[in-house]
Specification:
The chain is α/β, with parallel strands linked by helices and 585 residues long. It has 22 helices and 20 strands. Helices cover 38% and strands 16% of the residues.
Length: 585
């Protein structure tokens, strides 16, 4: 086993081992050769090669999303590093621990016209948990240093002392960065300058730093909750709103406690991964009919909570945001170890605890309040559920009908990865089986890395994965298919409505050439040739009969991943969706 001869490369690899970071995603390059050699030669590490840096970072994000521990992604110098930024922003807002490692040119080669060279230090400053800018070694390429930057080496006798100082600094930086990623579940950036030669190796010395234990916290509710309990127990209208939430993270007794309190109304989303007959999973199906009602003000007053309790990540529904911003609760409490976004412009308290620990303690001391709040809105839910089934029987082939069939077809225990834009919004309208685990990049809600994230995530799930995506998201991240790690049971469903169909739903849509070119961005493409390029099994359907037949066999075992492309009518989809809310009113 061999490793790079460069001391800082050896330090970085040894620290990754000490922190148990064993998954390394590598975007090929030359300046990062010392790290590629050291990682790939060591059997401790599981290394993955992804050519496109943006895809590599999202692929690593998908793995970290499932493992809930740091995954490293490595690139060469120059603009390669900037391609990490979309995934870094997503990880930052979704609390996912990514370790971004960039090889760099020495400082004396920055801004002098050297190739593949940019200002890499602190480049992610506003969206990173920590930036570690390591110092360049002086015992490597010493003669080059003397020639190009003599100030780094005063005399031969001080060379070893200088290197010891550099090692000490780099060790502290590495420990801080990796500890931050591990304990705070946030992305960190490690920038490491290398001078040539880059490919020299030495026998690995087998040195391994002591394992770095991250802090195991036992949650103790140190706050005096008596005042909050009094307020909670007195309120007859309490709304619990859950955003993105990891599957199986909330104990069943908490779910039952919330569901059995007549004064509590629980709104969830597909990405909440919480299920109970007394929860309301389709928020817009409740709010949109009220918006269309002549008794709008009266109904919204009845829905307005006295207390809003939120936990989980970002909320998909724009309608619930608009409602709660106008009809503000008297109290808005948010539960999260780190963050409390004032999404509704009325946040009154932040409980800095894991939701499961806090709710288990808090609800055990609460008293159920007699109220008609939950019963009333559950009856509304029952009404819209029945009307939705009637509507689905009446409508023609469209995005909405396609999603209804897709959701029903997903096998139990599957992992579903949703792309953003229309995809995640349509998914909110339908009930998904409680055994299905749902994920989506909702930190920044971009379409840019859905495929790469799903493929990375699928490697750490026992059950198969299906990615449900739109055409723009699929084509945008088609380089995400450029790898050798897709499982044969990986499935992709592409709903192709020939452009950004969501823009037809948003206010301001017009049937003009400018709208089609610059908002909707019609393209006339299909996925057939992309699938042929990457040797994926491909099937195209254009109607309900063929869709039902295709879904009957889509999840059957195969020797290659499968892609099902569904073409829907671009100019009809928005009308059918908007008419749905009128129909259930």
């Amino acid at each position: 086993m061999r490793s790079s001869s460069i001391p800082s490369a050896q330090l970085l690899v040894n620290h990754c081992k000490a922190f148990g970071i064993s998954r390394i995603v590598i975007a090929p390059g030359s300046r990062n050769a010392p790290l590629i050699i050291s990682f790939t030669e060591d059997p401790f590490f599981h290394c993955y090669s992804i050519v496109d840096e943006r895809c590599a970072a999202f692929f690593a994000l998908g793995m970290a999303q499932q493992l809930n521990k740091p995954v490293a992604v490595l690139c060469t110098s120059g603009s390669a590093l900037l391609n990490f930024y979309p995934a870094i922003a997503e990880a930052f807002y979704s609390d996912i621990p990514l370790v971004l490692i960039s090889a760099d040119r020495p400082a004396y080669k920055i801004d002098i016209g050297d190739g593949q060279t940019i200002r890499q230090d602190d480049v992610f400053d506003r969206h990173i948990g920590y930036s570690a800018n390591l110092k360049q070694d002086v015992t490597h390429a010493t003669e080059t240093l003397r020639a190009l930057d003599p100030s780094m080496i005063n005399d031969a006798s001080s060379l070893e002392n200088a290197q010891r100082g550099i090692d000490h600094y780099n060790i502290e930086q590495l420990r801080t960065a990796l500890k931050t990623a591990s304990e705070k579940l946030t992305p960190v950036h490690i920038n490491i300058p290398f001078e040539e030669p880059l490919y020299d190796t030495v026998p690995a010395n087998g040195e391994r730093l002591p394992a770095q234990d991250t802090i195991e916290t036992t949650t103790v509710l140190s706050e005096n909750l008596s005042e909050f309990l009094d307020t909670w127990n007195a309120a007859s209208r309490k709304m619990v709103l859950v955003g993105v939430y990891t599957p199986n993270s909330l104990e069943q007794e908490i779910i039952e406690s919330l569901a059995s309190d007549p004064s509590v109304l629980v709104f969830t989303e597909t990405t909440s991964n919480l299920h109970h007959p007394h929860f309301l999973p389709s928020i817009d199906s409740i709010i949109a009919p009220i918006e269309n009602s002549p008794k709008k003000e009266e109904f919204f007053k009845e829905l307005q909570p006295q207390i809003l309790l939120t936990f989980g990540g970002l909320i998909v529904s724009k309608k619930i945001k608009a409602f709660l911003r106008k009809y503000k609760p008297q109290h808005h409490w948010h539960i999260h170890e780190k963050k409390a976004y004032d999404t509704f412009f009325g946040l009154s308290h932040h409980f800095k605890y894991p939701a499961n620990s806090f709710l288990k303690s808090f609800l055990s001391k609460s008293i159920k309040k007699d109220s008609t709040y939950q019963k009333k809105w559950l009856s509304v839910k029952e009404h819209y559920s029945k009307r939705r089934e009637v509507y689905l029987d009446e409508i023609s082939f469209s995005d909405m009908l396609v999603f209804a069939h897709i959701v029903k077809s997903i096998p139990q225990d599957y992992m579903v990865q949703l792309a953003n834009s229309s995809t995640v919004r349509y998914a909110q309208l339908f009930d998904i089986h409680s055994s299905v685990k749902v994920f989506c990049n909702r930190g920044t809600s971009g379409i840019d890395g859905s495929t790469s994230t799903a493929i990375g995530a699928s490697l750490h799930q026992k059950e198969p994965t299906v990615l449900i995506t739109g055409d723009l998201s699929f084509f945008y991240d088609s380089n995400g298919l450029w790898n050798k790690y897709m499982r044969p049971d990986f499935r992709i469903i592409v709903i192709n409505n020939d452009g950004g169909g969501i823009f037809r739903i948003l206010p301001g849509s017009e049937d003009t050439q400018n709208f089609e070119d610059y908002f909707e961005t019609t393209h006339g493409l299909d996925a057939k040739n992309v699938c042929a390029l990457y040797q994926l099994n491909y099937q195209l359907v254009r109607n309900k009969i063929d869709l039902k037949k295709a879904l009957n066999t889509f999840y059957d075992s195969s020797d290659r991943p499968k892609v099902l492309e569904i073409k829907t009518p671009r100019k009809l989809n928005d009308r059918i969706l908007l008419a749905y809310f009128d129909f259930i009113s």
